[in-house]
Write a structure and sequence with these properties.
heterodimer, A: about 220 residues, about 60% helix, globular
């Protein structure tokens, strides 16, 4: 099973171009950091309530991304003398998203899902692309999310994490048709609330996008 | 965490107590799955003695709700302390679960 960092990188992948879909870098880092935290929560390494995030088990998982994130959150917690705010933990994990991205891409290549292509842009600049060579996982996740969003089925905790991440990246348009997007607004809002780390990701991502929009209109 | 359970006719009443967090979650999930009873399950979860619930605890209840839905059963919660109720409201879990005013209302809701 893929980790959430790999899942979201895969879902962010444009099948045709081999590049990631356009997303503000700050939002991308929040989503990757949030994916790592939500994976740690599913693996019972951290727990959250309305106010705090707590490290409950420091045992490594044998996963370089998650173990790195766990170590950094544990250090942050120790430095603060106890529990930490969920958003504070999210920004800490997000700060290392650019380290986690190549690790996750390497895993997707090793699994035969992506391949790496080196080329030149404008015959001068080196560029690297990651075309999709097996879209089974990507399609399965989209199908699963459609099934949950278009019904009253109770999701499992993994479904909720994926819905939070996909929504924070504004990727629902690749999962649902325009008519379905309109019809499922309330359902998406209901489900994305159900993970407290996911709530922090959605809130931080939308605040970041609002700042970017404000800057773009005032400069 | 120990899950006390009793029957009221065809309804199982499962009683949670203490803190439902990551350390209690595995036992709570196992205990509640055992407590589901017959098919379709009709379950009222008494949360009167529950003083705290974390995300790990919410995930346990989600797994139970899903299981009950898959078996075309019914589940209701009652006796939520204000702080626990707040967690349900903020997380939207109050839209997944039927939260009854008291035991009698919970039993009536799942019958």
């Amino acid at each position: 099973m893929l980790g959430f960092v790999e899942e979201i990188l895969l879902l962010l992948h444009n099948e045709a171009s081999g590049d990631l879909v356009d997303l503000p870098h700050a939002v991308f880092t929040l989503v990757v950091g949030g994916a790592a935290l939500m994976d740690l929560a599913i693996h019972n390494r951290i727990d959250t309530d309305l106010d705090h995030l707590t490290v409950v088990d420091r045992t490594p998982l044998g996963d370089d991304i998650l173990d790195d994130a766990l170590g950094r959150i544990a250090k942050l917690e120790a430095a603060s003398g106890g529990q930490i705010d969920i958003t504070e933990a999210l920004y800490e994990a997000a700060a290392y998203a650019e380290i986690y991205r190549p690790l996750a891409l390497k895993r997707l290549i090793a699994r035969g899902i992506l391949k790496e292509e080196n080329g030149r842009h404008l015959w001068v600049f080196r560029s690297r692309r990651y075309p999709l060579i097996d879209n089974t996982e990507q399609q399965e996740v989209r199908t699963r999310l459609r099934q949950i969003l278009l019904s009253d089925e109770i999701p499992d905790p993994r479904d909720i994490v994926l819905i939070c991440l996909v929504d924070a990246c504004a990727l629902m348009r690749f999962v649902l048709s325009d008519a379905e997007l309109t019809a499922t607004v309330a359902r998406v809002q209901q489900l994305r609330k159900m993970d407290l780390i996911g709530q922090a990701v959605t809130k931080s991502a939308s605040e970041t996008e609002a700042i970017i929009r404000f800057a773009a209109t005032t400069l | 965490m120990e899950i006390a359970r009793e029957w009221d006719g065809d309804v199982v009443i499962a009683r949670l107590g203490g803190r439902l967090d990551s350390s209690a979650a595995p036992d709570a999930e196992e205990g509640l799955l055992v407590a589901l009873g017959g098919v379709p399950p009709r379950v009222a979860i008494d949360m009167t003695g529950l003083s705290y619930i974390s995300s790990a605890g919410l995930r346990v209840l989600l797994v139970i709700a899903k299981k009950v839905q898959q078996q075309q059963g019914k589940v209701a919660l009652f006796g939520l302390a204000p702080n626990v109720r707040e967690v349900f409201t903020v997380s939207g879990f109050d839209t997944i679960f039927l939260i009854a005013a008291d035991r009698a209302a919970a039993l009536a809701a799942v019958r």
